[in-house]
C-alpha cells in the first residue's frame, strides 16, 4: 500500500544508481553468456569422453573427407574436384554438389590454427566444430530474443538452447554435419533480420544478407529462411504494420541475398529458377507496390487517393492475372512443379512414400512420434504456448516473427523428424520468453507484497531484466519516432536518451505493478515450481546428451555382467579393406556405407549416401535381391571386386542389411520391374525362417549374410530376428568369403574370377558348369 | 662440389686399403682357426648365428685384427655383427666387447664381403684367443610354398653353407642348426650330418682350406610371427616443462607366406590353434617404466584392443591390430606415450644437456626395414649432436609446433634393417637456455594483455562522426 510513496522516494536514488546498475547488469550478462557458451560446448563432449574423438555416423565422414581434400589441395582444387572414388563409373562433381559452408568453416579454422603453428589435425578440428558453433548459436539466440523481449528473455532462451536435446543430437562433438553450423547461421540471420526491423539500419540489412549467404552455403534448409521472412513481411503488410524499416529489412535481403546465393555452385540459378524461391520474389513485388501506395498516399489528398486506388487496382489486377497465368504455366510445365522432392514431401507428407522410396527409406525423413517431441524438446513443449501468449503482450513486429517462426516450424517438424532441429530454436526462444515473463511477474509481485524489501532490493535479477526490457521497449518507441525525422543518434546519446525516457515512466510503472500483483504464497509456490521445471529440463538434457545422443554409431558398446564390451567391427572391416586390397578395387555395398567406405577404407564405391542417382542405387538393390549368378553378372558389369554386407544376427545389431533389405527390393523394383516385393514376402510378412519364400532364401543378401552362419551355434539362430534361419547349409558359387569381422558384423566377399571360356561348348552347358561348384571341375576333361 | 670430395675420399680409401693390404696380407694367412663352432638359431624369423672361434696366430708377427667373411647373399640381410673376446678360464671368464667394422679386401673371391674385428691387444705369435661372434640375419627365411591357405602352416627355406666361410684355414668346425619344431621337411646332407630333435648337426669337419663353401638348404616349419615393420617413425619431443612425448608410427606387415583364398572367421574362431596357425594377433611392446597417457590408434580412430601392464622396472603394452594378420596383410597404427623428463634428460655441463634414449623398435622380435628416429629439441636449443653406437644417417630438420616462431630443431637419425639387437642407448647433446621456456607463456600473456587494452580503448573512444 505504501508502494507509491516508496517508489517516489526512490526516484532520486534510482537515477543515480541507473548507470551503475546498467554497467553491473552488462558485465553480469556478459559472464552469464560466457558460461552459457562453455555449457553449450561442454555438454556436447560426452561423446569424446565416453567414446573417443572420432567422426560420427555417415554424412559426417563425407564432410570430413571433403575437408581433408580442402586442407590438402586448397580452395580452387576443391571447387574443381571431380571425385572418382564414388558412384563408380559415374563419379561425382563434389565442388558443385556440396553445400560448402561447413567444410570451408572447418578448413578456415584449421588453416588459422596451423598458421599460428598449433598443429591440430583436421579430424580434431572437424570433431569440435559442432560444439563450438553450438556456443555461437546460443549467443545468437540471446541476441535474437533480446531484440524481441529484452535481455532477461534472451539469457533464458540462450541457456535453454545451449542444452536442448534436439540440437544436441545433431551437434555433439564428432557430429560433423551441415546442421552443426547451419542452426547458428539460421538464428543469426533471423537475429539480423529482427535487428534491421527494429533499427531500420542498412548496415544490419547488409549483414543480414551476408548471414543469409553463409546459411545458403551451409545447408539446404536455407529455403526455410527465404520463405519464412517473406511470410512475415506479408503478415506485417496485411496487419497494417508496414514501415520503412520493414522495407529496409526485406528488400536488400532479397536482392543481395539472391545474388549471393547464386554464387554458391550447388544453388546457382536455382536461386531464381525453382519454386522454393518464388514466394520471396512475389512478396518483393508486393512490398514495392505497398511502398508505392504509402508514398502516393502521403502526397495525395484522401479523395484523390481513393480515385487512384480504384484505377490502379483495376489495371493491376489484370496485369497480375496475366503474370500469374504465365508463372503457373511455367511451373506446371516442369514435372515436379518446380519443387525438389524433399521440399514436396514437406508440403505433402505422403508424397515421398508414394513416389520416391529412396527419400522415404531414410529414417530421419519419417514423421516423428509424440514421444520424440518430449524426448527432443522436453518441457519446452509445455512452455511454448505460454511463450506465444507472451509474444502477444504486446505484439510487436519482432514478436510476431517469433510467433510465425514457431507455428511454421511446428508444422515442418511434424512432417520430418529431421526438421525437429528447426523447431528447437523456436521452442527455446518462446519458452525463454515465457519463463522470463513468468519470473518477471512473480518476482515483481513478491516484491510488491514485501513492502520492506521493495525500496532496497532494486538490483534484483528479475527486476533488472524487466527494467532494461521496458527501457528498451521505450527506446525502440523513441527510435521509431526519431526514425521519421531521419535522425540517428550516436551510441552514447542513445544511452542517455534511454535514461531520460525511463524517468517519467517509473511512476506509471508503479501503477502497473500494483495491478499485476499476485498473492505472495501463490507467487512463491509458482516460482518454486518453475525452478523445479527448469531443473527437470536440465536433468533430462544432461541425460539425453550423455546417454541417448553421444554414440558415434561406428563403434558400439554394450554393458554386460563382465564389464564393457566394445564392438569395433566397422572400423575393423574398413581398415582391412584399406590395407589389404588394391587401391583401385571397387567395393559394392548398400548406399548407407558408401561415405564411410570412401572415407575410412579409401576404396571406390558404387553408390553412397548422396542418393542423387536412383537408377544406380536400384542396380545395387537389384543385385542384392537377385540370385547369386545374376548378382555376379550385375556386379561384374560394374567392375566390382568386393561386396560388403552388414550382418547383425550374431550379436543382435538391429540396423543391419537384412532389416534394410525390403528397401533394396523396393528401390530395385522401382526401376527393374522383374524384382517384385511380394516375391520376398510370405503372406505379406517379411521373414527369413523356414517359412520364407524361395526367392528370399536364394537372394544374394540372404546368402552373403548367412553363409556358414549355422556353424557358429549349430542351429543358425538369428538374434535380431529372433528365429532360426530358413536355409542353413549352402555353398557360394560365385563369391568367396575374404573377410569377416570379429563379431561378424561386417562380411566382405570377393567375386570369383570368370571361368575360362570353353571352346566348342554350347551356351547351355556353359551356364551349367559355371553354376556348379568348383569341386566338380576336375571331372571336366578340358580343364 | 661433391665430385672432387668423392674422388679424394676414394683415393684416400684406396691408399689406406693398400697400406692395410701390405701390412695385413701376411697376417691374413698367418692366422688360423683351430676350432669353430657355429649355432644357427632359426626359431624366429630373425636368424641368430652364434659363432665361437678359437683363433691362433701361427705367424711370426703379432696380429691385431681378425677378419670374418660373409657370402654376398647374406651381407644384404645382415643386421648386426657383434664380437666379444673371452678372457680367463671357466668360471672366471669375462667378456670384452670388440669393435667390428665392415672392410673391403682386394682379392675377395666371388664378391665375398668382410668384417674386421679389432682385437683389444695384439695377438702375439703362438698365442690363441677365443672370440664369440653374434650376427643376425633378417629376411633370410624364404617361405615355400610362397602362398598358403588359412589352415596350412608355414614352411620356409633356410640357405647357408655347412662350412663356415672364412679367409683362414679352419682345423675343426661344427655347425648346429636349431629349428623351432621337430617338423623338418628336408635338409641337405653334408656328411657327417645328424638330426636329433629340433637340432641338426653338421660336422665335425676337419682341416678345411680358406673359402671352403658347401651350400645347404633346410626346409622346415616356422609359425613364429613374421612381424616386419616396413617403416617406423619414432618421434621424441622434449619439453623442458617435464615431459617427453613419444610418438611411434608403424607400418606393419606379415612377411611370411602370402595368404591365399578365403579367410573364414568361423574356422578361425572355432579352432584358432589349427586354423590360422601362421597368423598372429598380438604384439608386445616393451616401454620404459613410468610411462603415462599411452594411446594406440590408427588413421580412423582409437583401437580398443590393447592392454598396458606397468611395474617399477618396465611397462609392457600388449597391442592387437584391428584384425589378425595373415601372410602379406598389412596394418598401420600409431602408439604414443608420455615419459617423465628426469628419467631421460641429463645435464652434462653448463647449459649443455643430453637425452639418453633407446634406439630400435619397442616391439619384441620384430624387424624394422627402415627406422627414422626424430628427436625434437625444444625451441631455442643449439648445437645438436648425436652419439649413436652404430652407423646411422643423420640430418637436421625444423618443426613448428604450438606457437613456435623460430621452429624446433629436429635431429633425424635413419637406419635400415633394425633388429632388437639395436635397442641400445644413444645420446643427443644440445645447448639450451632455460629462459627460452618462458617465451611462449609471455607471448600468450602479452597477446591477451594487448587484447584487453584494445577492448578498453575501444570502449572509451567515441568514433561516431556526429555528436
From TrEMBL, chain A:
The chain crosses the membrane at residues 23-43, 93-113, 125-144, 150-168, 180-205, 211-235, 247-272, 278-296, 308-332, 373-393, 400-417, 515-539. GO terms for molecular function: dolichyl-diphosphooligosaccharide-protein glycotransferase activity; metal ion binding. Its cofactor is Mg(2+); Mn(2+). Gene3D superfamilies: 3.40.50.12610. InterPro entries: Oligo_trans_STT3 (IPR003674), STT3-PglB_core (IPR048999), STT3_N (IPR048307). Keywords: Endoplasmic reticulum, Glycoprotein, Glycosyltransferase, Magnesium, Manganese, Membrane, Metal-binding, Transferase, Transmembrane, Transmembrane helix. Pathway: Protein modification; protein glycosylation. Residues 459-508, 756-783 are annotated as: Disordered. Residues 27-429 form the Oligosaccharyl transferase STT3 N-terminal domain. Its EC number is 2.4.99.18. It is a multi-pass membrane protein. It is an enzyme of class 2 (transferase). Pfam families: STT3, STT3-PglB_core. It is found in: Endoplasmic reticulum membrane. One of its GO terms (cellular component) is endoplasmic reticulum membrane. Residues 584-643 form the STT3/PglB/AglB core domain. It comes from the Eukaryota. It catalyses: a di-trans,poly-cis-dolichyl diphosphooligosaccharide + L-asparaginyl-[protein] = N(4)-(oligosaccharide-(1->4)-N-acetyl-beta-D-glucosaminyl-(1->4)-N-acetyl-beta-D-glucosaminyl)-L-asparaginyl-[protein] + a di-trans,poly-cis-dolichyl diphosphate + H(+). Component of the oligosaccharyltransferase (OST) complex. Belongs to the STT3 family. This is dolichyl-diphosphooligosaccharide--protein glycotransferase.
From TrEMBL, chain B:
It comes from Herrania umbratica. The keyword RNA-binding does not apply. It comes from the Eukaryota. Pathway: Protein modification; protein glycosylation. Belongs to the OST1 family. Residues 1-27 form the signal peptide. This is Dolichyl-diphosphooligosaccharide--protein glycosyltransferase subunit 1. GO terms for biological process: protein N-linked glycosylation via asparagine. The chain crosses the membrane at residues 442-461. Keywords: Endoplasmic reticulum, Membrane, Signal, Transmembrane, Transmembrane helix. Component of the oligosaccharyltransferase (OST) complex. It holds the Pfam family Ribophorin_I.
Amino acid at each position: 500500500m505504501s508502494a507509491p510513496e516508496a517508489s517516489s522516494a526512490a526516484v532520486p536514488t534510482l537515477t543515480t544508481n541507473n548507470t551503475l546498475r546498467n554497467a553491473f547488469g552488462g558485465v553480469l550478462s556478459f559472464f552469464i553468456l560466457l558460461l552459457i557458451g562453455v555449457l553449450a560446448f561442454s555438454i556436447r563432449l560426452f561423446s569424446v569422453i565416453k567414446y573417443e574423438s572420432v567422426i560420427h555416423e555417415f554424412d559426417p565422414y563425407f564432410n570430413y573427407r571433403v575437408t581433408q581434400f580442402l586442407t590438402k589441395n586448397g580452395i580452387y582444387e576443391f571447387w574443381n574436384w571431380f571425385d572418382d572414388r564414388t558412384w563408380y563409373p559415374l563419379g561425382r562433381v563434389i565442388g558443385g554438389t556440396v553445400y560448402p559452408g561447413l567444410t570451408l568453416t572447418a578448413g578456415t579454422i584449421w588453416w588459422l590454427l596451423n598458421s599460428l603453428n598449433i598443429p591440430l589435425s583436421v579430424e580434431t578440428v572437424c570433431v569440435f566444430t559442432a560444439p563450438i558453433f553450438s556456443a555461437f548459436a546460443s549467443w545468437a539466440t540471446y541476441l535474437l530474443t533480446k531484440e524481441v523481449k529484452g535481455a532477461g528473455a534472451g539469457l533464458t532462451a540462450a541457456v535453454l538452447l545451449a542444452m536442448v536435446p534436439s540440437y544436441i543430437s545433431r551437434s555433439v562433438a564428432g557430429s560433423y554435419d551441415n546442421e552443426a553450423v547451419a542452426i547458428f547461421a539460421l538464428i543469426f540471420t533471423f537475429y539480423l533480420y529482427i535487428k534491421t526491423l527494429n533499427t531500420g539500419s542498412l548496415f544490419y540489412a547488409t549483414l543480414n544478407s551476408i548471414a543469409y549467404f553463409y546459411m545458403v552455403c551451409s545447408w539446404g534448409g536455407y529455403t526455410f529462411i527465404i520463405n519464412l521472412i517473406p511470410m512475415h513481411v506479408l503478415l506485417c503488410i496485411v496487419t497494417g504494420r508496414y514501415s520503412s524499416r520493414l522495407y529496409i529489412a526485406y528488400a536488400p535481403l532479397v536482392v543481395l541475398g539472391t545474388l549471393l546465393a547464386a554464387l554458391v555452385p550447388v544453388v546457382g540459378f536455382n536461386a531464381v529458377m525453382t519454386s522454393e524461391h518464388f514466394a520471396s520474389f512475389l512478396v518483393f513485388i508486393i512490398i514495392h507496390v505497398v511502398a508505392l501506395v504509402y508514398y502516393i498516399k502521403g502526397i495525395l489528398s484522401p479523395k484523390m487517393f481513393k480515385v487512384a486506388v480504384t484505377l490502379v487496382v483495376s489495371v493491376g489486377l489484370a496485369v497480375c492475372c496475366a503474370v500469374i497465368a504465365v508463372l503457373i504455366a511455367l511451373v506446371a510445365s516442369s514435372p515436379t512443379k518446380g519443387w525438389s522432392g524433399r521440399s514436396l514431401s514437406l508440403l505433402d507428407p505422403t508424397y515421398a512414400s508414394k513416389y520416391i522410396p529412396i527419400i522415404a527409406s531414410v529414417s530421419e525423413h519419417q514423421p516423428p512420434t509424440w514421444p520424440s517431441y518430449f524426448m527432443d524438446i522436453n518441457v519446452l513443449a509445455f512452455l511454448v504456448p505460454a511463450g506465444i501468449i507472451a509474444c502477444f503482450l504486446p505484439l510487436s513486429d519482432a514478436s510476431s516473427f517469433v510467433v510465425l517462426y514457431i507455428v511454421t516450424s511446428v508444422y515442418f517438424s511434424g512432417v520430418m523428424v529431421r526438421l525437429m532441429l528447426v523447431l528447437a530454436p523456436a521452442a527455446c526462444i518462446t519458452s525463454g520468453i515465457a519463463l522470463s515473463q513468468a519470473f518477471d511477474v512473480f518476482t515483481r509481485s513478491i516484491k510488491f507484497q514485501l513492502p520492506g524489501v521493495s525500496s532496497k532490493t532494486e538490483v534484483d535479477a528479475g527486476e533488472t531484466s524487466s527494467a532494461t526490457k521496458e527501457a528498451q521497449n521505450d527506446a525502440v518507441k523513441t527510435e521509431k519516432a526519431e526514425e521519421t525525422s531521419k535522425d540517428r543518434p550516436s551510441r552514447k546519446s542513445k544511452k542517455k536518451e534511454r535514461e531520460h525516457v525511463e524517468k517519467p515512466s517509473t511512476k506509471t510503472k508503479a501503477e502497473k505493478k500494483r495491478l499485476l500483483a499476485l498473492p505472495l504464497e501463490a507467487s512463491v509456490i509458482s516460482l518454486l515450481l518453475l525452478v523445479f521445471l527448469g531443473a527437470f529440463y536440465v536433468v533430462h538434457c544432461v541425460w539425453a546428451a550423455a546417454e541417448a545422443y553421444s554414440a558415434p554409431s561406428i563403434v558400439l558398446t554394450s554393458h554386460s555382467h563382465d564389464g564393457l564390451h566394445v564392438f569395433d567391427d566397422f572400423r575393423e572391416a574398413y581398415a582391412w579393406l584399406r590395407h589389404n586390397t588394391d587401391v583401385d578395387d571397387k567395393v559394392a555395398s548398400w548406399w548407407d556405407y558408401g561415405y564411410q567406405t570412401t572415407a575410412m577404407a579409401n576404396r571406390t564405391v558404387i553408390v553412397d549416401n548422396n542418393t542423387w542417382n536412383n537408377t544406380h542405387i536400384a542396380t545395387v538393390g537389384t543385385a542384392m535381391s537377385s540370385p547369386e549368378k545374376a548378382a555376379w553378372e550385375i556386379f561384374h558389369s560394374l567392375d566390382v571386386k568386393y561386396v560388403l554386407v552388414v550382418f547383425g544376427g550374431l550379436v543382435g545389431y538391429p540396423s543391419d542389411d537384412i532389416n534394410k533389405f525390403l528397401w533394396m527390393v523396393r528401390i530395385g523394383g522401382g526401376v527393374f520391374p522383374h524384382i517384385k516385393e511380394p516375391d520376398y514376402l510370405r503372406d505379406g510378412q517379411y521373414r527369413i525362417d523356414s517359412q520364407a519364400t524361395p526367392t528370399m532364401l536364394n537372394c544374394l543378401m540372404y546368402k552373403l549374410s548367412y553363409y556358414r552362419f549355422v556353424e557358429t551355434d549349430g542351429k543358425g539362430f538369428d538374434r535380431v530376428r529372433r528365429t532360426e534361419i530358413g536355409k542353413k547349409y549352402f555353398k557360394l558359387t560365385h563369391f568367396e568369403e575374404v573377410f569377416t569381422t570379429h563379431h561378424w558384423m561386417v562380411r566382405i566377399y570377393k567375386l570369383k574370377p570368370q571361368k575360362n571360356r570353353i571352346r566348342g561348348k554350347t551356351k547351355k552347358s556353359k551356364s551349367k558348369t559355371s553354376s556348379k561348384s568348383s569341386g566338380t571341375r576336375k571331372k571336366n576333361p578340358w580343364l | 662440389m661433391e665430385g672432387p670430395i668423392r674422388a679424394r675420399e676414394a683415393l684416400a680409401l684406396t691408399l689406406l686399403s693398400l697400406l692395410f693390404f701390405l701390412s695385413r696380407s701376411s697376417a691374413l694367412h698367418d692366422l688360423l682357426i683351430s676350432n669353430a663352432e657355429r649355432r644357427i638359431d632359426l626359431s624366429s624369423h630373425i636368424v641368430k648365428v652364434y659363432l665361437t672361434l678359437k683363433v691362433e696366430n701361427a705367424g711370426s708377427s703379432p696380429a691385431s685384427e681378425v677378419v670374418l667373411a660373409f657370402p654376398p647373399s647374406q651381407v644384404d640381410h645382415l643386421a648386426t655383427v657383434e664380437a666379444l673376446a673371452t678372457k680367463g678360464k671357466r668360471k672366471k671368464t669375462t667378456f670384452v666387447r670388440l669393435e667390428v667394422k665392415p672392410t673391403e679386401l682386394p682379392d675377395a673371391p666371388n664378391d665375398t664381403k668382410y668384417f674386421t674385428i679389432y682385437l683389444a691387444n695384439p695377438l702375439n705369435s703362438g698365442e690363441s684367443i677365443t672370440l664369440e661372434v653374434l650376427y643376425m640375419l633378417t629376411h633370410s627365411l624364404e617361405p615355400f610354398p610362397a602362398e598358403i591357405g588359412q589352415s596350412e602352416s608355414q614352411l620356409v627355406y633356410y640357405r647357408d653353407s655347412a662350412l663356415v666361410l672364412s679367409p683362414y684355414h679352419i682345423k675343426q668346425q661344427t655347425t648346429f642348426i636349431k629349428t623351432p619344431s621337430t617338423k623338418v621337411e628336408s635338409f641337405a646332407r653334408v656328411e657327417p650330418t645328424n638330426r636329433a630333435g629340433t637340432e641338426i648337426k653338421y660336422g665335425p669337419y676337419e682341416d678345411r682350406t680358406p673359402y671352403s663353401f658347401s651350400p645347404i638348404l633346410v626346409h622346415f616349419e616356422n609359425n613364429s610371427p613374421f612381424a616386419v615393420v616396413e617403416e617406423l617413425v619414432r618421434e621424441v619431443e622434449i619439453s623442458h616443462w617435464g615431459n617427453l612425448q613419444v610418438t611411434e608410427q608403424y607400418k606393419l606387415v606379415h612377411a611370411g607366406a602370402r595368404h591365399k583364398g578365403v579367410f573364414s572367421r568361423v574356422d578361425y574362431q572355432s579352432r584358432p590353434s589349427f586354423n590360422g596357425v601362421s597368423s598372429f594377433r598380438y604384439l608386445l611392446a616393451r616401454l620404459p617404466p613410468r610411462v603415462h597417457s599411452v594411446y594406440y590408434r590408427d588413421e580412423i580412430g582409437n583401437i580398443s584392443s590393447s592392454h598396458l601392464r606397468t611395474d617399477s622396472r618396465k611397462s609392457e603394452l600388449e597391442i592387437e591390430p584391428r584384425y589378425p594378420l595373415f601372410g602379406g596383410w598389412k596394418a598401420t597404427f600409431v602408439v604414443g606415450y608420455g615419459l617423465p623428463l628426469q628419467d631421460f634428460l641429463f645435464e652434462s655441463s653448463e647449459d649443455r644437456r643430453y637425452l639418453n634414449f633407446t634406439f630400435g623398435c619397442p616391439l619384441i622380435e620384430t624387424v624394422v626395414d627402415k627406422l627414422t628416429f626424430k628427436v625434437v629439441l625444444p625451441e631455442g636449443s643449439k648445437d645438436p649432436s648425436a652419439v649413436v653406437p652404430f652407423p646411422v644417417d643423420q640430418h637436421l630438420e625444423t618443426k613448428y609446433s604450438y606457437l613456435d616462431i623460430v621452429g624446433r630443431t629436429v635431429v633425424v637419425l635413419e637406419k635400415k634393417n633394425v633388429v632388437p639387437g639395436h635397442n641400445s642407448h644413444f645420446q643427443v647433446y644440445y645447448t639450451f637456455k632455460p629462459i627460452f621456456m618462458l617465451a611462449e607463456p609471455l607471448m600468450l600473456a602479452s597477446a591477451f594483455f594487448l587484447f584487453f587494452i584494445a577492448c578498453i580503448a575501444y570502449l572509451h573512444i567515441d568514433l561516431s562522426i556526429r555528436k
